[in-house]
Design brief:
By secondary structure, the protein is α/β, with parallel strands linked by helices. It has twelve helices and eleven strands. The strands form two sheets. The chain has a seven-stranded mixed sheet, with helices on both faces. A four-stranded antiparallel sheet has the order 8-9-11-10, covered by helices on one side. It binds 4'-deoxy-4'-aminopyridoxal-5'-phosphate. One of its GO terms (molecular function) is histidinol-phosphate transaminase activity.
Length: 346
């Protein structure tokens, strides 16, 4: 895979945003180069200064936990920003195409449409696994990205590892593995495979297991040439200082996160079992994530009756291969009991 050929023509000569401050780091103490407020901010923190565009302190802390070098790490304003930047960096509007595997996370299609990039859909098999033949047939010389979500949203299952490896080995563009829910899965992450596959991009996020959805912080891990391209096209200060500060603090509390993962997985298994005993439930799909896909007799009426009880879940009954299904996030033990009680009421 030649990154020079893969990236869009119009960004080939772009340089990553950098400032004189980075160049003269440690040598200067008076900063009159960025038209900031030199007096301070109305807060204790020094929010009057622009943040580090490359977030090196935060990346360093992430690197210690993930074992991925800083130069293989990109941070986005949510993984949604990384998804959008992949389109902007690698897909020529009106010419290139990407492959998505429905039913899957909706943002890949939204981003494709916003960027005027053709979407090719290769549905998952009824087992919710990859249709490898269908994928091979859909690829042409203008296919730049394939999005594989594992564990997949909304189905909850992990994609068979060897199938993902087959796609990685046979596709000349980038294979984006979205691991937003990986912390809840039995299957291990693909970030250890980065050195083996120059065309691998792994997305992870602080929005799920890390409990920081409000911060908007996502990670993309990839070979250096891919990360360098993302750094060229990103807005200079895409991760704000408050996010960098708070995430650094949160990373010191990994024990709490691991504890929640354990509880969530136990609750998921318990909730799955309980749901399966309900008369309105036709099928509970096995989940490797923090949500459960459930087929019910009448999705809309179940959804509405839960709303009446003050419980919001997700109606996925109109989604390909998920007909009649609801997607339920695993709540706290108390929330799950309340949900089950509501579902038991006639
Ligand atoms: N990928 C998947 C599979 C998701 O389900 C979500 C959020 N629902 C995201 C990415 C978005 O994550 P972020 O909050 O980091 O933008």
């Amino acid at each position: 895979m030649d990154i020079n050929k893969l990236q869009r023509e119009n960004i080939k000569n772009l340089r990553p945003y950098s400032t004189a401050r980075d160049e003269y780091k440690g040598q200067a103490s008076i900063f009159l180069d960025a038209n900031e407020n030199s007096y301070g901010s109305p807060l204790e923190e020094n929010y009057n200064r622009y943040p580090d565009p490359l977030q090196l302190d935060l990346k360093d802390a992430i690197s210690k936990i993930k074992g991925v070098p800083i130069e293989n790490t990109f941070l986005g304003n949510g993984s949604d920003e990384a998804i959008d930047l992949l389109f902007r960096a690698f897909c020529e509007p009106g010419k290139d195409n990407v492959i998505i595997l429905p039913p899957t996370y909706g943002m890949y299609e939204v981003s494709a449409n916003i960027n005027n990039v053709e979407i090719r859909k290769v549905n998952l098999l009824p087992s919710f696994q990859l249709d490898l033949e269908g994928i091979a047939e859909a690829i042409d010389e203008n296919t730049k990205l394939i999005f594989i979500c594992s564990p997949n949203n909304p189905t909850g299952n992990s994609i068979i590892r060897t199938d993902i490896e087959t796609v990685l080995a046979n596709f000349n563009g980038l294979v984006v593995i979205d691991e937003a829910y990986i912390n809840y899965a039995k299957q291990r992450t693909f970030i250890k495979e980065l050195t083996e596959y120059p065309n691998l991009v792994v997305l992870q996020t602080f929005s799920k297991a890390w409990g920081l959805a409000a911060l908007r912080l996502g990670m993309a891990f990839a070979a250096r040439p891919v990360i360098d391209v993302l750094n060229k096209v990103k807005p200079p200060y895409n991760i704000n200082q408050a996010t960098q500060d708070i995430a650094l603090k949160a990373l010191q509390n990994i024990e709490q996160v691991n504890e929640w993962i354990k509880i969530t997985v136990a609750e998921r298994e318990n909730l799955s079992k309980e749901l399966a005993t309900l008369p309105i439930v036709k099928k509970v799909y096995p989940s490797d994530a923090n949500f459960i896909l459930v087929e019910v007799e009448n999705a809309l009426s179940t959804y509405n009756s839960l709303v009446d009880e003050g419980i919001i879940i997700r109606d996925r009954s109109k989604v390909t291969l998920c007909e009649g299904c609801l997607r339920i996030t695993v709540g706290t033990p108390e929330e799950n009991v309340t949900l089950l009680d509501a579902l038991k009421r006639p």
